[in-house]
Amino acid sequence: MSTDYQQAREALGVRLRELRMSALGGRLTGQQLADAYGWNKSKVSKLENGRQTPTTDDLRKWADATGQPEAYDELLARLRGFESHIRSWRRQLASGHKPVQDTHLGAHADASVFRGWESSMIFGILQTPDYARSVFTRYAELQRSPRDTEEAVRSRMKRQEALYDSSKRFHLILWEAALRALICPPSVLLAQLDRLSGAIGLDTVELGIIPLSASLKIPPATAFWLYDDRQVVTETWHAELWLDDADSVALYLRTWRTLRESAVHGADAHHLIDAARRALDPR
């Protein structure tokens, strides 16, 4: 978790404590507040000490319990401020995957030049419906989130219209491992590899693949997107990070350029895709 994020969460906790201590009708104890909503007493302590991120419902109840409902808007603004950069999957996926896909759809609409790095699976912008369906299903199982697979697939396919927009350019780098990762049935991966081969011919797409045998200057770590070299979106298992400070953007751009030095393009990229295809279907 970033230092800025944690500091903002701790500051919110301090404000929550202030509200509890200045409750109308007299100071509320942590136990009284917890009892009012059936919370474990440790929850109050965790929220006030910045060890747990409150939900919007937590903030509403806190403001009401302290007799200061007008404080809710201020608390919500504080929460939204640091959540705009670090967005937990638990919160984002509370209503399923489609809202997350719609958010990215909006980000794609606002940008013209995209740089991406992916080490473990095919880019969403290049996925077939069946491949995307497998990915969403696996992540819904992992995150225990609502199943809205078909709606999420439709939103992801909608995003792919940008590939045919002549005003946009996609500079994408994959690790060869992503071509072989069986996160879907082999027949689905075969169709996905065919789709990937076709993407190399698009004039809006530059697709590079780093061979498993390539010499690397840095480890092929976390996947990320750069939007117009002004914003970075990257993922961890617990959250999605949206970064727009100049130092972070510069670091990710430098990372992307370093990885690109090991990538092959054009016919050489086709050869790697063909090799992955033959490994699945040697006929």
CATH topology of the largest domain: Endonuclease, Chain A
CATH H level, superfamily name of the largest domain: Endonuclease Chain A
SS-based class: alpha/beta
Total tally of structural domains? 2
Percent of residues in β-strands: 5-15%
Which spans have pLDDT < 50 for at least 5 consecutive residues? none
Run of helices and strands: HHHHHEHHEHHEHHEEEEHH
Describe the structure.
The chain has 2 domains: about 5-85, lambda repressor-like DNA-binding domains (434 Repressor (Amino-terminal Domain), Orthogonal Bundle), CATH 1.10.260; about 90-280, Endonuclease Chain A (Endonuclease, Chain A, 2-Layer Sandwich). Strand 5 (about 225) and strand 6 (about 230-235) form a beta hairpin. The protein is built from 13 helices and 7 strands. About 50% of the residues lie in helices and about 15% in strands. With about 280 residues, it is of the alpha/beta class. Strands 1-7-6-5-2-3-4 form a 7-stranded mixed beta sheet. Helix 11 (about 185-200) runs antiparallel to helix 13 (about 265-280). The protein starts with a helix and ends with a helix.
Secondary structure layout plus pairing:
Blueprint: H1 3-21, H2 30-37, H3 41-48, H4 56-65, H5 72-83, E1 86-88, H6 89-92, H7 98-110, E2 113-118, H8 129-143, H9 149-159, E3 169-175, H10 177-180, H11 186-199, E4 205-210, E5 224-227, E6 231-235, E7 239-243, H12 246-260, H13 266-280
Parallel strand pairs: 2-3, 3-4
Antiparallel strand pairs: 1-7, 2-5, 5-6, 6-7
Helix pairs in contact: 1-5, 2-3, 4-5, 7-9, 8-9, 11-13
